[in-house]
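Table S2 (text version). Query chain:
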Amino acid sequence: MIETRVEADAAEGFAQVAGHLGEFLQGRLGPSGPLALVTLPCPALRAEAVRRPGPLALEQPGARMLTLPALRRLLAAAEGAEGRFRLVLDLPPGGGAGASTAARVAILRAAGVTDTGTLARACLASEGASDPLMFERPERLLWASREGRVLADLRPLPRMDLVGGFFGASQRTDPADLSFPDIADLVAGWATADLPGLARLATLSARRCLALRGPADDPTEALAARLGALGWAIGHTGPARALIFPPGAVPPAAGGALQAAGFSRITRFRIGGA
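Corresponding structure-token output:
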């Protein structure tokens, strides 16, 4: 993304938005309750947008996330400034990494939109569903992804190391899809759990989702056990996968083990703590 940052020097607007690597939790709050999630932020996966003066235009050197009419509607919904936009993604569309929301938030921030409520409403109107990536600490929110609203504030995460990537085919989110397991009990336990407890809850959410939605041959749990992880998390829609470890405890062989199991775009990162 060096070229994008160089162009930013002459730009009227520039924004960079981090994605995520699936969710710690995702499911219904009760059998007929809203679809809710706790995102797993990944600072290594990002969307960048640059806005320069000129008539409305959109350059997407990688994945095509937005058409020009969709961009025009997105800007109008948030009263963002028009111009010549360049959007670069370092996260795969349909990967369970928040590409759609990160791209839209980056575009809108480059267009001068800063209010999180406005960003959330514009993304929901554009996508039909969204991740909470417009917030500074999205992992500290219980988020209603089909409604674009915060259901509860959560405490800070303890520090943890993660290694993960993408296993399987991409899968775009269907805003009408509400076929997810009930996680009300997992959400209730999230507020008081320590790191091993959070990893256990994330594992239970992932297991329930895979049991209901597949795929049946997912190797993530076996990899977590083999590598001594505290637990594991998945993209509940999409192939993102992550193994959860205490700080400094990721085995040197972890990346190679994931690669041998068929994972792509393997990344290692740390989140949580002060």
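Notes on Table S2: The chain is about 30% helix and 30% strand. The domain at 155-271 is CATH 3.30.70.890 (Alpha-Beta Plaits).
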